[in-house]
Amino acid sequence: MAIEGLNERSQHLLRTLIETYIQQGQPVGSRSLAHDSGLDISAATVRNVMADLEALGLIVSPHTSAGRIPTAKGYRLFVDSLLQVKPLQSAEVKRIEHELQGASLHNTEMLISRASGLLSDVTRLAGVVMVPNQGGMSLQHIEFMPLSGKRVLAILVISSTDVRNVIIDAGRDYAKSELEQIANYLNAAFAGKGLRAVRETLLREMRETKADMDAVMQSAIEMADKVFSGSEGGDGDYVMAGQTNLMEVSELSQVERLRRLFEAFNEKRDILYLLDNSMQAKGVKIFIGEESGYQVLDECSVVTAPYEVDGQCLGVLGVIGPTRMAYERVIPIVDVTAKLLGYALNRR
Predict the structure, then answer these.
(1) Contact between 63 and 23 (Cβ < 8 Å)
(2) Containing domain of residue 49, as a range?
(3) What is the CATH classification number for the domain harbouring 51?
(4) Residue 261 in contact with residue 182, Cβ under 8 Å?
(5) Are 109 and 187 in the same domain?
(6) pLDDT above 60 (res 64)
(7) Alpha-carbon distance 331 to 117, whole Å?
(8) N or C: which end of the chain has fewer CB within 10 A?
(9) Per-residue pLDDT at 287 exceeds 70
């Protein structure tokens, strides 16, 4: 592949340098690069090529008299133009498929948790899976049970295997008969509709017709608003596994760097924004170093892929690790896991 400013020899040496650095984690010198490249060239010739690559901002020397390591720009060129991604072995695909299918027999939360754990286990990095956007799911049935302290338990049936419990502050005590009336009204009005559509209808009815509602209808709308508030996934959430794997990565092992990284994981806002940016991507999307826009991730790469049900994107999953990650392996793992998660959700 022709790359502006690089001939085939320069491309080959850059690819060899990056692959060697990913594997060994040490700056690569001209002698070892000449040997590893398999080309019949001298170390002096390699040094000249390395000087050109450094002038282009593709590699850098971390210390005086040290070898060279890739920059984020170098990794980007490598991933976009030089990387050869190989499909996963059938045994690995079957393992992921088997574990996700097993988890799908329980509930969505367990399935999402298992997917993040699988990503972490297989890559030895941090796996992250967005909780599905509930706007793409439909309400099948709703029931209410009175609790103490003016609270009510709402039981939402999304599917035969996806039942969710929400405890709300009802503002007053409700008799069981009142809650049955409210549930009957909501089931008649909203059963079979998408959660996003339910939320939009509630907001419209509260705004436009509140004065004309009878007491039961008004109570039903107000209670349902509390149940479905935020159900579109606007604030978002994700499940992460394997954060401690990053403690074993030398580039990320500084205490202060790890502290800031783990704080970002706990606060979730920045990571969720990054995942949201991948929602419309077709297939795998990769953020390398500074490309994320967040300083805390400057030494990290994030490999993501959306997962879908019936052609509708419900969320994004991915892997977070050092820029020095085995992209040729991580990319197909993320891609396959996203497809199999969508398949498992679709079967539920």
Answers:
(1) no
(2) 8-82
(3) 1.10.10.10
(4) no
(5) no
(6) yes
(7) 16
(8) N
(9) yes
